[in-house]
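User: My instructor asked us to take a sequence, write out its structure as tokens, and then describe one feature of it. I'm not sure where to start. Here is the sequence I was given:
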Amino acid sequence: MAPPDRLVHELTRADARRIVVRATMLDAARPTDLMSVVERLTALPVEPTRAIAPSYDLVCWSRLGSAYEPRDLDDLLAERELYEDADGIRPMADLTLHLADMETWPPWDGTRDWLEANELFRNEVLDVLDADGPLPSRDVHATAQVPWQSSGWNVDRNVRMMLSCLLSRGEVAVNGRKGTQKKYDLAERVYPRGVEPVPSDQALALRNERRLRGLGIARAKGTVLPGEPIHVGDAGEPAVVEGTDGEWRVDPAQLGLPFAGRTALLSPFDPVTRDRVRMEDLFEFDYVLEMYKPAAKRRWGYFALPILHGDRLVGKLDATADRKAGRFFVDAVHEDVRFTKAMTKTVDAEITALGDWLGLAVDR
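Assistant: Let's start with the prediction itself. The structure tokens for your sequence are:
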């Protein structure tokens, strides 16, 4: 039982959903510039699947609409206003909150042993980047002394794994892209000089506070996912949500605010949907990313986009962008709830807007 002087906010599911939608900038008050979106969300997802568009572009388009152009993101990266690490695209101002962890990475004995056994390999990779960077991983030619051991995904990908490790250690940085392929370079050519790391414990607390501001409400801890964390430690204030178990952490700045919603199409890796447990608890929405399933076993499609309407997730859009054909193929709109005429109209308008933004004719 909580101590009597400890305030625990009591929220309905609708309260919690509206906090999420407002915090993630998906309510009716659209943001007006890309930098404010990245600053609020803390990190854009770097998952590159292009069935429709890369998730970092879809997340930005869902907020900014037709005002967003992918080259805007490229420009901010080139101008060093943003940087890309292994987990996301972030404001360069936040680099100081990650440097202490970079200095002590990796946390796993096996990876640490592999790096120590491959010191010559590491130096060879850095020498190649020093001479010829920035380069995509396939153009970095170096030989490992000890191959990376993997359950399958990364067998015989020694260079890629070394670059990933050096990126996490802050020795290498992403310096542009070739299509969806990262181009790697020495970190000193990308990161500003003279940036001092915030001590690790303090940095963790600040990152948790920043993350909660961009999520609105989240759990203190839970399952660790690849990419940007989804939990926030003891940031914010405690809350309970009607119909859910356990305690949440809520951003107090989001409490008691008015709400006006809109309709939006979301990437499966959007901050609203990426934490599937939170999504199920608060939105009561059934969703599985089916890109890894055989086609015959898919219910909703290869890369179905969750559909947000107001403060509810109401369905999935099964669609594919065929750039060669110049078509945005809409295979199905799966309704989790029966759409009203008004809902159908706004969903159709978003599908048309997405096709226009992609520069493709919508084929329904």
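For the description part of your assignment, you could build on this observation: Residues 341-358 form the longest helix (18 residues). Try explaining in your own words what that tells you about the chain.
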